[in-house]
Write a structure and sequence with these properties.
The structure is a homodimer. The first copy, chain A, has about 375 residues and is α/β, with parallel strands linked by helices. Chain A has 2 domains: about 1-10 and about 265-380, Aspartate Aminotransferase, domain 1 (Alpha-Beta Complex), CATH 3.90.1150.10; about 15-265, Type I PLP-dependent aspartate aminotransferase-like (Major domain) (Aspartate Aminotransferase, domain 2, 3-Layer(aba) Sandwich). Chain A has 11 helices and 12 strands. In chain A, strands 2-8-7-6-5-3-4 form a 7-stranded mixed beta sheet, with helices on both faces. A 3-stranded antiparallel beta sheet of chain A has the order 9-10-12. In chain A, α3 packs parallel to α4, α7 (about 250-265) crosses α8 and α8 packs parallel to α11 (about 365-380). Chain A is globular, with a radius of gyration of 21 Å. The mean pLDDT of chain A is about 95. At the A-B interface, α1, α2, α3, α4 and α7 of A face α1, α2, α3, α4 and α7 of B. Chains A, B: Pfam families: Aminotran_5. Chains A, B: It comes from Anaeromonas frigoriresistens. Chains A, B: It catalyses: (sulfur carrier)-H + L-cysteine = (sulfur carrier)-SH + L-alanine. Chains A, B: GO terms for molecular function: cysteine desulfurase activity; pyridoxal phosphate binding; transaminase activity.
Chain lengths: ~375, ~375
């Protein structure tokens, strides 16, 4: 299959990721941080090494401020629901994923207010619209780094500056960027950073994480065994134990470490440039096909390599189905768990067909995708 | 290493588990249930098959009533904190793990009362002590199926009957038994069952689950993308989507399915009999070593294959250290995240050295462990 669904999860992964997962399972498959024997210590070390490489990638000072979660969704829930208290106000945008919107909406019944700032039809946010909505009780701004529908890149450094200026905290959803676009939590004033492990960080599914700036008061979602302060019936207050109860996904986290090492070795710029090159070929090619409507910026400097389109008035899921069954091309149709983004684009009814590029896609993949789209567009006329 | 830390996580796993994980990662590493293309559908089918084999194992009618979690701790938190409401009373026991006790204690500040029933010095629960503590507002009884410290088996069928008689719900923590001891949610009146995937179910770390009886009102811990009802800003109410936001641990869950299939093929009785045989050799052997104190029932019919002991007054972590460094035997010392169990046993200061047997241990492992204990006991005299 020509896999162009990398925004959902990257596939394939680098070989060192597969190997790291297998090594963790077969050579030292013990429970980390629980016992003191060799295999347990080795598993614990493996997990710590993943914290270390992530700290390098995101410029995080203390690796213990990284919390491992099952996915970005869990990280976003922990950050949003653990941080906001009754009476607080949170600002977010219409381009967010349901993993940001649904927790924020769910908090309404706990007395936490929200403002969802409308983006324009290409998915761009106007920073002044954020600033205009800041109130006395605004505690947090949450935005994506890049839309999972149109790829539209948000000016997170500028939003971070704005948040700092108003003494508000800033949380970034890096689901579509972590591992490809530079993220520096210090330089960008990011207080809370949520990321999936299995997308551009190239780790296995079942991994994600949350960076929490030192000293932030975030309530844990789970209590349980932490392998620390076991005599106490209340959850220990030390990081990361406070948030990491129970046996972690050791092989997954160690595989994630291998994915991040691959990125650091290869160079994040080199990976991004490869993806941008393919994105350019794709956008240029689409430009020449009649009857195709491309959503979002359609510009490689303003969007991550996520391309959403429609062909005439055809239902997006019908197009995805043909791409899969006739052309063996994997894409994702529908609403991509981002209803307000589709409302913003005007595609709530039709959905869109989303193509998303990963580090292992080739120019040949893109030209085959373009050929297929052309054929379908001709048929649809 | 002679690995006798299977109560923390089983190691090794059957080869089919390693193979299933690799196949899921390499052959169809897509995001399940999100897109409609072949690889995504195959990943989704793999996850559903794991629900199916677990349903067979636990006699669960509808596989969709099984929720996948990161570990048993998350499952216990979801079941306990999602089910209990302000004004409710919950009964549990002193033999519980911190993953039961800490959530229950944390609920006190939300106005949820608890009674922690004291077990005897071998870890046995007296059912009458549970019944005596039932109040008008008692909504839930939570007990372990077998202690993670002494292996003491709880009469869950009888407790289930008691709960039913009083119209109270019953939740079982099967962390030490799922995959080795028979569990039948219908026959045993179990309303909520929490289990780890990576212990006796032989799956990878990063897996666990919660069975929720049809119709129980349990609040989700996380909201987010579910791949269903994407146009809505509130979490969908259908199972399992309500509780499974975000990308799941697909390779882990598929590996868990392989572990459960291994158990079903081999026969749960055959695995249990093997472990009981080794337990008997171990207990008989310990009986002949002077200076060793064994905790719990010391009886293969009354305990899971978890054996806790001390040698004279030696610190338990010192003994575990010697077992690892001199004899290459992996055990776990300390409090095992179960402080009230240790208080019950009178070992809060010394801790205990825990040996736990898995399906791949051999008679030779046990005789080597006995030899090592004997040598250390002679030295310690």
């Amino acid at each position: 299959m020509i896999y162009l669904d990398n925004a959902a999860t990257t596939f394939p992964k680098p070989d060192i990721v597969y190997n790291a997962v297998m090594e963790a399972m077969k050579d030292f498959g013990a429970n980390p941080g629980r016992a003191g024997h060799k295999l347990s210590l080795r598993a614990g070390r493996g997990i710590y090494e993943t914290r270390e490489v992530l700290s390098v990638l995101f410029n995080i000072e203390n690796p213990m401020n990284i919390i491992f979660t099952n996915n970005a969704t869990e990280a976003l829930n922990l950050g949003i629901k653990g941080f906001l208290k009754k009476g607080d106000h949170v600002i977010t945008t219409t381009m967010e994923h349901n993993s940001v919107l649904r927790p924020i909406i769910a908090l309404e019944e706990k007395g936490i207010e929200n403002t969802i700032v409308r983006c324009d039809e290409k998915g761009f946010i106007n920073i002044e619209d954020i600033e205009r909505n800041i109130k006395q009780n605004t505690k947090l701004i949450v935005t994506t780094h890049a839309s999972n529908v149109t790829g539209t890149i948000f000016p997170i450094k500028e939003i971070g500056k704005l948040a700092r200026k108003h003494n508000i905290y800033y949380m970034v959803d890096a689901a579509q960027t972590a591992g490809v676009y530079p993220i520096d939590v210090k330089e960008m004033n990011i207080d809370i950073l949520a990321f999936p492990g299995h997308k551009s960080l190239l780790g296995p599914q079942g991994t994600g994480g949350l960076y929490i700036k030192e000293g932030l008061d975030i309530m844990q979602m789970k209590e349980g065994g932490t392998g620390s302060k076991s005599h106490e019936l209340i959850q220990p207050d030390i990081l990361p134990d406070k948030y990491e109860s129970g046996t972690p996904n050791t092989p997954g986290i160690i595989g994630l470490g291998a994915g991040v090492r691959y990125i650091l070795d290869k160079g994040i710029d080199s990976i991004r440039n490869h993806e941008k090159e393919l994105l350019k070929i794709f956008l240029d090619g689409l430009n020449e096909i009649d009857g195709v409507k491309v959503y979002g910026p359609a510009n490689i400097e303003e969007q991550a390599p996520v391309i959403s389109l429609n062909i005439g008035d055809e239902d997006s899921s019908e197009i995805s189905y043909i791409l899969d069954s006739v052309f063996d091309i994997g894409t994702r149709s529908g609403l991509h768990c981002a209803p307000l983004a589709h409302e913003t684009l005007g595609t709530l009814e039709q959905g869109v067909v989303r193509f998303s590029i990963g580090p292992f896609n080739t120019k040949e993949d893109i030209s085959k995708a373009l050929e297929a789209i052309k054929k379908i567009a001709v048929e649809a006329r």
